[in-house]
Design brief:
Layout (H helix, E strand, L loop, with lengths): L1 H109 L1 H53 L4 H57 L7 H43 L1 H52 L3 E11 L7 H14 L3 H13 L8 H10 L1 E4 L5 E9 L1 H21 L9 E10 L7 H50 L5
Antiparallel strand pairs: 1-3, 1-4, 2-3
Amino acid sequence: DEQRAAFSRDQDARTRELDTRAREFEHRARDLEAKRLDLDVRAAQLSTQEAALASLRTNLDGATRERNELVAKLNQAQQVAGQLRQELESSRTELANLKGALDRALAQASDAGAQNTSAAQELVAAKSTLAEFQARIAELEQITAQDRQKLEQAADVIEHLRSGGGESSAELAKARAHIETLSRELSDCRTKLEETRRDLSVLEQTEQRSRELAQQLAAELKEARSFGGGITEVARTRKNRLQRAKLMLREQSEKLRVAGEALRTRFDQCEQVLAQRQDLLSAREVINAAQRRIEKTKARGRAAATLMYACMTLLILGGIAWIVSGQVWPGYFSARSAIGADSRNRTLSQAELAEWQTFHQSLLDDPRFHEAAADRFNKRGLTTLGTAPQVAKFLKESASAEFNEPGEMKLEVRAEGADRAERLADTLTGALISFSNASRQRRVDGAVTVLRQTPAAGGSAIDSTRLQMAGVLMGGSSILAAFGGVLVWRKLATAKSTFEQTAMLDAILDEQRWQPPTK
């Protein structure tokens, strides 16, 4: 009966232990389910971020296409500007040639009495030169119209960038470079217009001299007519030549006047183009402000993301450190149990209870009990307590007993880890009950020792070993993570700087390649 009772109690103790472990497994299963849900939420967030990344890539492709279009337009504008410069140089050369031809015509016309035939030929050549000059002026007007169209396209591009709010810093930088290039071309155009104005003044002076020559020829013709009927054949021929020269000079003056008006019209058109420079400067300020806003927004986003990543990293490192320290350095736990005296059929007297207490007090120092306990520890797989001296040392250093009430003994076992503490307490309690009941017949009290409280460990450790080691692990891992983050950031910053310098150098080389030669 006693063995069955002891076996039943052992079975009950094991059943309770299994129930406790089942509850722990259920708790761990709930924790794992919560972690799985957290991972599902993170997976959904990653999917959202991937979709946002795909959208950003699409926007980047669009921005790249627009940038290529801007580059093509800029190249066309540079080509047109080069052609315009060449045309202006050609016009200036032709004006100089025309000026020389007119001077020669005036010099020869002043000596009309002796060289009227040569003067007529020179005037015919000047007429042909004026016709060519008018054709060149028409071509210049056409080039001016094309230049104005290119400027309008550049203004449309600037307006597009202004309405878009600066979606890409690369587009803004390219547009700013485009604006600076157009500004330089407008400055060159103003210089060429000043030169054209001076050429126009020279043409007006030439026209004035032509009018004076016409008046002089008219006076000579009037003087020739005053001779009346005595005009000879030579005088009549000279008169006809002078009339033709006068007619040619009048036609030349008219053409010079038309050319001067055309140059004035072109000058006004170029002034209108130069008036758009202020609009270009305003657009440049708007682009710079948009770029500054974009940089501030990006800086705030990067700071918030860095702070969030740092907090998440610290939380993850802290959780990992706590779990690892719990497995490696769980700390010391205290497991408590209680046994008591039971007579089953009668009430024990105070003397019997005192005898029971005296026996169990001496039992902790009894070598025979140490041998029995060592055998029980070996059977439970606790080989570190497999000998009597080891059990005696364990009872002296890591176990204690209290007798607060008559007929009751409370045991406390301290060990590293809650599971180990409960297992040691359960084995020691079972050994006490078994040894006490085996020697019951030799005792005066004859009481049966029963289990009053199942061995159970507390929920928290009795020392701070786990917390200290978790702090050490978290600090070390945080330092390593910070070092790795700084190393990665420096590599990325170096790569970004190298890429930006390469892109800037490519842009500079491209501008030098397309820059037209200067005088």
